[in-house]
Amino acid sequence: MHALGLTLVAAVLLAPVAANAQTGISCSELPQAAAFVAKLRPGPNTSAAERHLDAARNAKSDPQCVAELRRVDYYARRSAAADRRLAAHGRTAAPTHHVLCADALHQDRPGGTDYHGPAVAGCPRPKI
Predict the structure, then answer these.
(1) Is the domain of 109 the same as that of 120?
(2) Longest C-alpha distance within the chain, in Å?
(3) Tell me: the pLDDT tens digits for 57-115?
(4) Of 38, 49, 96, 99, which cross-links 76 as Cys (Cβ 3.0–4.6 Å)?
């Protein structure tokens, strides 16, 4: 009976160690994870990966750090898959917007004399 109790206690205490060995993730991989996340395109999964990466950096214990790195891995894989899908379709991460610049009839657009907003790339500066 005593041996069974020790076996159960050992299984409970060693389960996190076995789980870490199974996934192969350790806190020493923080720099590699940060480098991988930095290469991802902006998006909701990339933002989630960055949040969990910060949580892993600030973790108080090794198991907490590993748990956060697992979440980083999950969101980073999703973000990388989305990036591959976009690249396969020849699209960029964000749709590009076409800005209408000022012309003779529309001087309130960027580049016009009546425009009062920030400068817009691709539109000439107004001649005053």
Answers:
(1) yes
(2) 93
(3) 999 999 999 999 999 999 999 999 999 988 888 765 555 567 888 888 998 988 888 88
(4) 49
Asked if pLDDT for residue 118 goes beyond 70, the answer is yes
45 CB neighbour count, 10 Å cutoff: 21
- The Cα 76–Cα 32 span in angstroms is 12
* pTM (predicted TM-score): 0.55
- Residue 94 token pair: 């964000």
pLDDT at 1: 45
The two three-digit tokens of residue 30, written as one number: 């923080």
Considering the domain architecture, whether residues 34 and 83 belong to the same structural domain is answered as yes
| 61 and 111 within one domain | no
**Which is nearest to 104 in space by CA: 96, 94, 95, 114?**
114
What single-letter amino acid sits at 47?
Answer: S
Question: Tokens for 47?
Answer: 């933002």
pLDDT of residue 4: 44
User: Are 29 and 89 found together in one domain?
Assistant: yes
